[in-house]
Design goal:
globular
Length: 229
């Protein structure tokens, strides 16, 4: 059971995320969060708020993984900065997700297009954000014994290194186990939610601009060579 929860499920969640993004791109180009041809002001505000909040949370967590020791948390100015970033980012992400997801759930016009995934997205996102706050400010963690570093960070590093260490999560406190399971669930369903395009659409636009710039450069180079000759 330990290997199923902490080795097989992470791989299955990652596979679902990758396959889902491919499917979503082919299906609607990640525009499924729109209920009309163009986003209204509420959707635009929600997209920006969620994008900033989620990006802030992700950046803070990655920085903490890189800076924290095997048993200790970040200290000094780095700790204060990361804590402040998370305090600002969590409300932004919650508000943004709510503005994007709640109106369609209560709108009679959009209700026929609501899927079961839409109904569980808000609770899963809120649970992911709140569990992040709970483990960050765990009163039982100290500078010399940071339980997040001993459990979640160690487990994540072992998965990335392809040397899974499920034992650290099997013996972790319940809140840390719940945090890991919630993140895996969010990763697995992410491409199928109406939040999938929040990051994918800007990334696709950036890639298109890079592609166009590369094509323009390739077209311009022969002309410049001929002119120089």
């Amino acid at each position: 059971m330990m290997y199923v929860l902490w080795v097989f499920l992470p791989g299955a969640a990652l596979a679902s995320c990758i396959a889902g993004h491919v499917w979503r791109y082919r299906t609607d180009r990640f525009l499924g969060y729109l209920y009309c041809p163009r986003a209204d002001r509420g959707q635009q505000f929600g997209s920006v708020a969620f994008r900033l909040g989620a990006a802030g949370m992700f950046a803070a967590r990655i920085a903490e993984v890189l800076l924290a020791g095997p048993h200790s948390r970040t200290t000094g100015n780095a700790h204060l900065l990361l804590s402040a970033l998370q305090i600002i980012a969590v409300p932004l992400a919650v508000i943004g997700a709510g503005v994007i997801l709640i109106p369609p759930l209560i709108s009679a016009e959009a209700r026929p297009r609501i899927t079961p995934i839409d109904r569980i997205t808000i609770p899963v996102v809120v649970a992911a954000l709140l569990s992040s706050v709970l483990i960050t400010f765990d009163p039982y963690s100290t500078n010399d014994r940071y339980r997040t570093a001993e459990t979640l960070f160690t487990w994540c590093r072992s998965l990335v290194a392809l040397h899974p260490n499920p034992g650290v999560m099997a013996h972790a406190p319940a809140i840390y186990q719940a945090r890991g399971l919630i993140v895996m669930l969010l990763l697995a369903i992410w491409p199928y939610t109406r939040l999938a395009g929040i990051f994918s659409i800007p990334l696709l636009r950036l890639l298109r601009r890079i592609g166009r710039s590369a094509q323009s450069w390739q077209v311009a180079m022969p002309r410049r060579l001929r002119q120089s000759v």
